[in-house]
Amino acid sequence: MAAATMSPFFSQNINQNSLVPDWTSQEVSTGTTIMAVEYDGGVVIGADSRTTTGAYIANRVTDKLTPIHDRIFCCRSGSAADTQAIADVVTYQLGFHSIELDAPPLVETAANLFRASCYKYREELSAGILVAGWDQRRGGQVYCVPIGGMLVRQPVSVGGSGSSYIYGYMDSNYKPNMTKDQCLELVGAAVALAMERDGSSGGVIRLASISEAGVERRVILGNQLPKCSTH
Amino acid sequence: MATLIVNQPPVGGFSFDHCKRNAYLLGEANKVGSSLPTARKTGTTICGIVFKDGVILGADTRATEGMVVADKNCSKIHHISSNIYCCGAGTAADTEMTTQIISSNLELHALSTGRVPRVATANRMLKQMLFRYQGHIGAALVLGGVDCNGPHLYSIYPHGSTDKLPYVTMGSGSLAAMAVFEDRYKPDMEEEDAKRLVRDAIAAGIFNDLGSGSNIDLCVITKGNLDYIRPHEEANKKGVRTGDYKYKRGTTGVLSKAVTPLNLEVVEESVLTMDTS
Question: Cα(A222)–Cα(A212) distance, rounded to whole angstroms?
Fold first, then answer.
């Protein structure tokens, strides 16, 4: 699906005579390629690092993998403002819930909190989110909360404008019961391919693996990207 | 049969009714061929960097109203707290009022907590306010300061998204300024090098962007010290006129002078009272 930039309620009449160029009035979009994969014992998540305002790259080193709790992360795509605001709200709600529970929260709970916000304000928001993490009850889980506020658990999921280019790669290369390192390779290669083809995705690849032991983060810089066979 | 009217409780949240009305009025005005008065925008080049001891914020000083320069020397670096400053691009009124509101709230917050305010707090307050107004407040900000956790720099967009980065630029001249930063930024620069880099970035915006101009303002924030340098450099000095079209007294020689009084008599006199009500 094409990059979801929020179409404003009331279209701004862009004054062609103005000294201020077009991209200063465009909303900040995360364009994006995001991906999450479950493995036995945890999840691997990955994202590109480009945030755009129109045709200008506002931030080329964005971190789209946002911690919601100790062992729960979310991958953000869509409007930067909307996803940051929702993530902040859910972080607060989940933190409060966890204190009340006196136990680490479930990934399903976090996913439901995201779904609740995304569905209730579906007309106003433009946010596609992947919730991924590890909990004691069900191990590694990936939940997909796309635009509109659906909630579905999937073993592997991609999102963002760049995802269209890697559905085929994902479908043919994902096998159940992969190891953590195989998952890291899969996510790295998939995001790299999407970054090659999607204009709204680029920069560096941010990866994270979440398991009972904790969270391991790494970055693949531009010159270390996996090489594709076409060039 | 009588109609049942159910009293609906007032719906919470911000009311965007006037936005619909304004959009309609704009449409009506455009049909007639005229346009509504535009808010004054600051065109602008603003930027900030994190260097070894703190942050440096820079800004130009031109405020434009359409194609006309409304203010040749406006101040775009706003005070948030003694250790936190904020540059503003976009609608001048919006940046001014937003920074003042957050500055006031932050001072109260600091008195309440008994602590020196943190940049992250100011960032939260700003982003939550801007998100609440869904982008209708046209304020694009560069927020920088030094607190107990070190130097921090944020860029805040009108819709409420923020980025925490080592160097940021905003405004119509941001591309020119970013080009300078991408070329010469290094982590942990010395103060003089960092000041020169910010000065060059703003200068790039001033000389290559029509919406930016006039002088360069700098603000150097380090732990326990603040340097608000306004202006750091007068990049555009008004020139001195080398010639004058006026003729001086004495250019034309007077040959003779004759004074003739004219005898006038009053023909008609009428008194018109001025309506001072």
Answer: 30
The ipTM, to two decimals, is 0.83
User: Considering the entire predicted model, what is its pTM?
Assistant: 0.80
Are A165 and A193 a contacting pair, CB within 8 Å?
yes
How far is it, in rounded angstroms, from Cα A164 to Cα A186? 16
Within 13 A of B101's CA, how many CA atoms are on the CB side? 14
Annotated active-site residue B44? The verdict is yes
Minimal-distance CA residue of chain A relative to B172: A20
- CA-nearest residue to A11 within chain B is B23
User: DSSP letter string over A40-68?
Assistant: TTEEEEEE---EEETTEEEESS---EEEE
Which pair of tokens denotes residue A116? 């609740």
| Dist. CA A36–CA A34, nearest whole Å | 7
Confidence of residue B9 (pLDDT cuts 50, 70, 90): low
CB proximity under 8 Å: B 63-102 to A: 64, 66-67, 89-90
CB-nearest partner of A19 from B43, B134, B175 = B43
d(CA B60, CA B233): 10
Whether the predicted pLDDT of A12 surpasses 60? no
